[in-house]
Amino acid sequence: MKVKLGRDRFVLWMYLSIFLQPLLYRKHVAAESEKASIGNDTIDEPVITTKRYDHNNASRIYTKDRVDEVNTAENITVLQRLIRDLFKGYDKDTPPILNHQDDIDIQIDLTYRQVIDMNEKNQVLKSLIWYRQYWTDANLKWKPKEYEGIKHVSIPATKIWRPDIAVYEEVSARNLTPRLPFVRVLHTGEIMFAEPTILETSCSVNTAFFPFDTQICYITFVSWTQTVKNIDVRARRKSEALDSESRQLFINSGEWVLERCWITKQIATYYTVIQRAGESPGNEVSEFYTFQKSYAKMPPTQRTTAAHVGKNLTHNMYAELVFAVMLRRNPSLYLQSMLFPSVALTTVAVFGFYLPPNSGERVGLQIIILLTFMVFLLTVGEMFPASTGPYIGVYFVISMVQLGVNIAMTIFVLHLHFKPCVRNKSTWMSQRSRWFIMGGETFEGESLIPVRYRRILQFLSKICGVADDEAAWMLPISNPDSIHEGTADRKAGTSNGEAMMKTSIENSDLDYVTEGLGKRPTDARAGVVTDEGANATTVEKTTVHKAFGKFRSQVDKVMEDIRAQKEFDQEYQDSLKQERQEWKSVARMVDKLFFRVYIFMLLASYVGLGIVAICGDNNLASGVA
């Protein structure tokens, strides 16, 4: 009986081993595959139950769709287990707060690194900054002692909740996806998101004092959808530390120098105002809505409270963090390529006044300088900012006007130097006769320049201190009527001179007829008609002798008239020469006057240029203050 019972048990065990062996093998393979999947895929978001992870109870069981139970297996690392535990029950679409009435404290820090481009035409600043953002996630906390002292981990930025911080002044379509894939998480739940980024922001550029201008641009960080009751934005550190680090790490691009940067915080309140425009034709009052904005300043590193805004925080208040950067343009490049050549050309034009007017090169030099300046402006025109009217453009226009005025001055001086004498002999003789009639002993030493010109020249010479005391036109004008002036006087002088010459000629002819050869025929005929012998011959000889004497006297008188006419012509030529010399003296005086005027214009333009530079520095000082 006992043997039979033992045999039956053996047979039963054999049957069970044959049928149960495949089932046990299949269970073993499933367990091994589950272990492998848990060790290789720990970052994927698990499918969880409604229970959350309890840091105080590390042995809590969570249900998955692939395994029934997960323990701290020996084939996964502590870091993998930590990340697995952090993401159990984590929802990145839910704000990381335990109480819905709490707000999230967002701390922003940045370092201004480089000015990539400043587009004055489009008013756009392109900058490279190091951006850092800090906040606390209440769902990402752990105890380091439970995970072998691990205090921080790096996790993908796309798997956690991130605030919607935007920049008001941004003009480019920037990709908001993080360029760097990870964020750093501390065991306290504090998250640091850091990345270098290129921002293109609008900036109000004022180029009035170019190239001595200073620009202040603002970058405003704000939560685009969350009010201050949900997200409070503040600075990580004070402006002094931010400014010191930015200036130390700033990369000078050659044109722009970082002068200062600072950060401020303000609470912007947006509210809607209903305004009434007036009665319509249907006796109805039309209403429309307008949005208004008010600000409340506060320290940038402090949390927002009701005390800062003077009233309770509402859902129409937004925390704005304003980062300001002051940039000064480096003028050295523009001084070398724009200002110094312009100053040199306008200064070289001064040496044209030292060339004598009869050299023939004076006008040519001034014209060459003007053409060179115009070509210079065409060359440096691309260096000007594409914006409205910098003062240096006005300076270039003034410099061109100065060179044009210099050419006009040179032409006027040459005109005076080579001024033609248009007076005729009759006019000059009339002036000379009137001078003798009015008691003048000699005509020498008296200026031949009209009195109206002499008065103007003497006045200018006294005012400007360029008098030529040796010139005849500088003598005092004692009798203005001694010199002919005016059209009526010129005609009267001409008629008087012609009358005097005509009277002189008629008197000479009358004497010649009555006393000379004019009586010879009558006397000869009288001698021939008489019948007296010897007396007739004697009378004829005597008459011929007297006639010959009369003739000699008339010839001598004609010769004296010829000599007088020659002396008259010589004196007339001397007067023309004297007048030319006087005009040359006037040209020298006017040239000195124009030289001083041009020097004054140059100094005034240089002073104006200096004022522009000083005003640019004062603008910088006021902005820093």
Question: Would you kindly provide a written description of the structure presented here, covering whatever features stand out?
Answer:
- The chain has 4 domains: 33-89, no CATH class; 104-330, Acetylcholine Binding Protein, Chain: A (Distorted Sandwich); 333-417, no CATH class; 425-624, no CATH class.
- The protein is built from 12 helices and 11 strands.
- The termini are far apart.
- Helix 5 runs antiparallel to helix 6 (362-380).
- It is α+β, with helices and mostly antiparallel strands and 625 residues long.
- It has a 6-stranded mixed sheet, with helices on one face. The protein has a 5-stranded antiparallel sheet with strand order 4-7-11-9-10.
- The chain has helices spanning 2-40, 78-86, 239-249, 306-309, 332-348, 362-380, 391-417, 425-437, 451-464, 487-515, 520-529, 534-624, and strands at residues 104-119, 124-136, 152-156, 165-167, 182-186, 190-202, 214-223, 231-235, 256-279, 285-298, 317-329.
Name some characteristics of this structure.
625 residues, alpha+beta, 4 domains, five-stranded antiparallel β-sheet, Acetylcholine Binding Protein, Chain: A, six-stranded mixed β-sheet, rod-shaped
Q: How many strands, which pairing sense, and closed or not: the largest β-sheet?
A: 6 strands, mixed
CATH class of the largest domain: Mainly Beta
Tell me the number of helical segments per DSSP (H or I, 4 or more residues long).
12
Shape: rod-shaped
How many domains make up the coordinates? 4
Number of strands: 11
Task: Evaluate the radius of gyration.
Answer: 56 Å
Mean pLDDT score: 75
Order of adjacent strands in the largest pleated sheet: 3-5-6-2-1-8
Provide the CATH superfamily of the largest domain: Neurotransmitter-gated ion-channel ligand-binding domain
Unreliable residue runs: 36-74, 434-445, 480-498, 501-531
What share of residues are in beta strands? 15-25%
Distance between the termini: 114 Å
- Would you give the CATH topology of the largest domain? Acetylcholine Binding Protein, Chain: A
Helix share bin: 40-55%
CATH architecture annotation name of the largest domain: Distorted Sandwich
- Secondary structure class reads alpha+beta
Strand/helix succession: HHEEEEEEEEHEEHEHHHHHHHH
